[in-house]
Specification:
Blueprint: H1 2-23, H2 33-41, E1 45-50, H3 55-68, E2 73-79, H4 81-90, E3 95-98, H5 104-114, E4 118-127, E5 129-133, E6 140-142, H6 143-151, E7 168-172, H7 177-185, E8 197-199, H8 202-210, E9 215-219, E10 227-229, E11 231-233, H9 244-249, E12 255-263, H10 268-278, H11 280-289
Parallel strand pairs: 1-2, 1-3, 6-11, 7-8, 7-9
Antiparallel strand pairs: 3-12, 4-12, 5-9, 5-10
């Protein structure tokens, strides 16, 4: 009798141990946590990080995609193009939004960390606009004039044909793709003035400029509310408005593409999402937000 009882106790313990092993959600040793998360998310969740310039556009794309694909979840956050690319490199984002091209050193870091190269998708066109308050009478500025203003060498509006008023510079933070683009294409990679006030997003720049009669700032064309954009002239060229036609044709000197980057060729939900972004429906979202859809030959 005692031996029989011991036998049934052993069977019961073994059964409980087997059940526990089958139902446990704790990852085993050896790094299976990522596998567990992958199983939990499957191919139905996509994490996108990056450009503050693109964050509203990306949120609109994500919502439209989820509306058309029940059960699929897209998580979008900003932080700057540099933040998005860094997240792609370390694997905490599936896709990175960037308002600038990826840097060579970032490509090398991605290849070293994840064993793949970044794949670039041009997803929209932007005219990087220069903003002044609505009451400012300045109609146009040349790129050399802008360089002197943002370098701190021109400090009063009367020096460029405006009123006798100090110029107050508003800029993006240095992890921003918009900052990097403006620094490269306007300042020739020289430093911004030490007096420039850096703000975390284009919306913050616009808000500051709209309330400061001496203010000037820059950012994506989609944010032009409560301020006025000035025409921009390349050195020796004619002043050009930041319109869709001028950006598409390349006449506007500060037009640029907006990008999505993936680590290697996108698959599953990432590919579905990018295909949607590049579709006619996705490009209508671009126009609705205030950026410019891709020229047909670019898509």
């Amino acid at each position: 009798m005692k031996a029989s009882q011991n036998h049934w106790i052993f069977v019961l313990v073994a059964a409980l141990a087997t059940a526990s092993a089958c139902t446990s959600s704790k990852p085993s040793e050896g790094g299976s946590e990522a596998t567990t998360k992958s199983q939990a998310h499957g191919s139905s969740t996509l994490t996108i990080k990056g450009s503050d310039t693109m964050v509203i556009l990306a949120q609109k794309w994500a919502q439209a995609f989820m509306d058309a694909n029940t059960g699929k979840v897209i998580q979008v956050s900003g932080g700057g193009s540099g933040t998005g690319v860094a997240a792609l490199i370390n694997g905490t984002a599936d896709l990175a939004n960037a308002s600038r091209s990826i840097k060579d050193k970032e490509q090398k870091q991605l290849l070293k960390r994840r064993g793949v190269e970044a794949v670039e998708f041009r997803v929209a066109l932007d005219a990087l606009a220069v903003y002044v308050p609505s009451a400012n009478k300045i109609e146009a500025l040349t790129i050399p004039q802008l360089k002197k203003i943002f370098r701190g060498q021109t400090t009063n509006w009367k020096e460029v044909g405006g009123e006798d008023m100090p110029i107050v510079i508003y800029s993006r933070e240095n992890n921003s793709g918009t900052y990097a683009y403006f620094k490269e294409h306007v300042l020739d990679n020289d430093d911004f003035a030490t007096t420039a006030q850096t703000l975390p997003g284009t919306a913050a720049v616009i808000n500051a400029v709209s309330k400061d009669q001496g203010g000037i700032g820059y950012g994506g064309i989609a944010y032009a509310e409560g301020v006025r954009t000035v025409k921009v002239a390349a050195d020796g060229g004619e002043p050009v408005e930041p319109t869709m036609e001028n950006a598409t044709s390349g006449k506007y000197p500060l037009s640029r593409f907006l990008h999505i980057y993936s680590a290697g060729e996108p698959a599953a939900i990432a590919k579905e999402y990018i295909d949607f972004v590049l579709s006619d429906e996705g490009q209508k979202v671009v126009e609705g937000v205030g950026y410019y859809p891709l020229p047909k030959e670019t898509k």
